[in-house]
Fold this protein.
Amino acid sequence: MSTRASGENEQRGNLVVFSAPSGTGKTTLARRLVASVPRLRVSVSYTTRPRRRDEQDGIDYHFVDRDTFAAMAGDDEFLEWAEIYGHLYGTGRQATEEILAGGSDLLLVIDVQGASWVRKRAPRATFIFLLPPDYQALLQRLRRRGTESSGTEAERLLVARDEIRAWKEYDFLIVNDDLETSLRAAKVVILADRQRRSRMESVAERVVATFPGAGAVSSDSPRSPE
Ligand code: 5GP
C-alpha cells in the first residue's frame, strides 16, 4: 500500500479483512483487537437487518432501509456488499478511505463473499480467517447465542459449513480455542504487516535521505561482490 505524499510523516493505513463462520467469536476478538492495537479502527458497516436490542445505530452498524442501501450501491458507495440471510450488508467506501488516509489500519469484519470482492479491489489488504476449534464448539456457541442471530440454527450451520471452506483464500489462519491466544496471534499479524517493505518504503527513503551525500554514488559506496 502506498504512503502519503513524501515529506509527510504518516503512513497510509492498511485494510485488514477478518472473516469467520458465525459463532466463531470474531466480533469479540475484533473488539478486543481495536481496544489493544494502536491506530487500528473497526469499520462500521451499513445493513438493512433490523437493529438488535443491544445495538446502537452508527456504532454497531449504520441501519438503513433497502431503498437507501440500493441507492448507495447504485452510486458505487460501497467497497463491497453482500446479501446474508436475506439482509444486505456493505462497507462504506468514503469512511474507509478517510480512515486509511488518516494513517489508521481498518478492520473489516465481513463475510467470505465480501472478502472476495475486497481481494479484487484491494489485493494488498491482509486477510485473516478465524476457525472454530471444531464443529461441536461452533454448535455450542451458536446454541448459546440462540435467537439473537439472523437465520435459524440449521441455516446458520449450513452457511458455516460453506463459509469454513473459504479458509484457503486467506493469508493468515487463527483457531479460536482460547481468546487471549487468538488475540495475541491477530495482533502479531497486524503489527508485523505494518513493517512490510512495501509499506515502509517512504520511511526508509526519508532515513536514507538524512545521510550525507544520499542519492549520489560515491567512492565510499559498498561494492558488490565480483
Ligand atoms: P450479523 O447480522 O450477525 O451482525 O452479521 C452477519 C454476517 O454479516 C457476519 O458474518 C458479518 O461478519 C457479516 N457482515 C457484517 N458487515 C458486513 C459487511 O459490511 N459486508 C459483508 N460482506 N459482510 C458483513
Notes: Residues 12-197 form a domain with the Rossmann fold fold (CATH 3.40.50.300). The chain has one domain: 12-197. The first strand starts at residue 15 and ends at 19. The longest helix spans residues 179-194.
